[in-house]
Amino acid sequence: MIGIISFVGFTSLVAIVAYLATRKTNEKTSDGYFLAGRSLTAGVIAGSLLLTNLSTEQIVGLNGSAYKDGLSVMAWETLAAIAMVVTAIFLLPRYLKGGLTTVPQFLASRFDTSTKTIASGLFLTGYVVVLLPVILYSGSVAISGMFNVPELLNVSESTALVICIWGIGIIGSIYAVFGGLKAVAVSDSINAIGLIIGGIMIPVFGLMAIGDGNVFDGLDTLMSANPERFDSTGSADQEVPFWTIFTGMMLVQLFYWGTNQQIIQRALGAKNLQEGQKGLLLAAFFKILGPLILVLPGMIAYYYFEGGLSSSDLAYPELVRAVLPNYLVGFFAAVLFGAILSSFNSVLNSSVTLFGIDIYKQHINKDATEKTTVKYGKIFGVCLALAAMFIAPAIANAGSLFAYLQEINGIYSIPILTIIVVGYLTKRVPAIAAKIGIIGGSLLYITSQFILKPYVFGDDNYLHYLDVMAILFLLNAGIMLLIGKFYPRETPYEIQYTEQVSIEPYKYVKQAGLIICLIVIGIYIYFAK
């Protein structure tokens, strides 16, 4: 009962603070609803970025990968810091100078409207078919198991799962659809504090459990027992072989942190460039510490359970159940619920933004007022949430979806990243090249990973999917450049600046970015075997 009370209390506190923070924001305008009135400060941006990124499929999935492979999977966390530095220094100034609300808006001005629509369609398809249902499913499994919902409500496990899915979906929809970005971002920031506290508690209690009550003794025991598992350089048979850090890994990170609408929308809502850059740099610093929450517990579980779990994806929930005191279960469940909710409502809010700005306003009702655009964006958001809630129960094996999700996302991530990079770095590449790049890139990736790999070469005799991403990135870019050489635009592209906020950069952005990059490199060198 204490656990349920603390869960409800912390969750209600977040909702009340988010409501109070959004009362003065005009949610009837595009900027007010989609970009929080361009009023977000560095702390809010950093917190929202971290919480948008974290959810149960990552907390459970990445710790499961660490249980299996050890420290090498930290690449998913530490290298994200470098990608955020690149975004802060090179991409965000261009985004804010152009007054962008969505990333595909740049594609419209650089290439043409149809290119933008194709990109928005790919984003939305990926969100509704894969990302939203997976977040709902994996989150519901965690909450149902933590509170033992089947026994609490005297229902079957499948019924309890559906109840949790709809509960999370409805609450998340209220935040995202009816509250706008500011409600999402403020709630994210509060939950970020709880997640850091709650997330650190698990490895602390875990190390105490294996160190006879002493954290440092537990760490010494862990490192002495299996020193080879503290190698930052992954081998060929692991999830992240070392060479992939220099091929597709950085491309995935640059897409996710620099061009993915659900993430970059937080920085687009900054009150000025300085706040946006400081928010990204602050989030990058905390991302370096991410392995403490997302990797170390999995490694502790490997030692604690002597590598005897039936599935690596059980590592995190079993460790939590084994080492967390009962009186903290409610608080930790509330924090985990906040992470689930954050990812769901962030993706949903970005979907509403993409539909309202890039599809409804552009193709359905070009004369729509801002109020009408927001209204129909909300209607679309409700439909999207309902679709995800119906799809979610059909997803199986949610705990093992982390690496699978990264592979699936390559269908749209690499083609979109390619045309954005080529679009910014060239002036003569035409719109037809972008269409070929984005459609052809998606088809080539699907052919490679879902036809050639399983049916021609076999899973064990094929390139790593991160290597495939790098090859296709270079191939797509090369094709676009060739088209630009032989069939160039009639006039060179010039960026049109429509500054809506101050674009004076943070004066220490390069120095801070360099320090973050050196820390990441230092960590890799220190743990390299």
Low-pLDDT stretches are: 25-36
CA(first)-CA(last) distance: 48 Å
Count of discrete domains: 1
Query: What is the approximate shape?
Result: globular
* Beta fraction: under 5%
Q: State the share of residues found in helices, binned by percent.
A: over 70%
Number of strands: 0
The CATH class assignment is: Mainly Alpha
- The oligomeric state is single chain
CATH topology: Sodium/glucose cotransporter
Q: In the CATH hierarchy, what is the architecture at level 2?
A: Up-down Bundle
- Write down the overall mean pLDDT: 82
Largest sheet: none
Spell out the CATH superfamily.
Answer: Sodium/glucose cotransporter
Return the string of H and E elements.
HHHHHHHHHHHHHHHHHHHHHH
- What's the helix count? 22
Sheet/helix structural class: mainly alpha
Gyration radius from CA atoms, angstroms: 23 Å
Topology:
Elements: H1 2-22, H2 30-34, H3 42-53, H4 56-69, H5 75-97, H6 104-110, H7 113-147, H8 149-153, H9 157-210, H10 215-225, H11 248-258, H12 261-268, H13 273-288, H14 291-294, H15 296-304, H16 315-323, H17 329-364, H18 370-391, H19 401-425, H20 431-457, H21 465-486, H22 509-527
Helix pairs in contact: 1-9, 1-17, 3-9, 3-12, 3-13, 3-17, 4-15, 5-11, 5-13, 5-22, 6-7, 7-9, 7-17, 7-18, 7-19, 7-20, 9-10, 9-15, 9-17, 9-18, 11-19, 11-21, 12-17, 13-22, 15-16, 17-18, 19-20, 19-21, 20-21
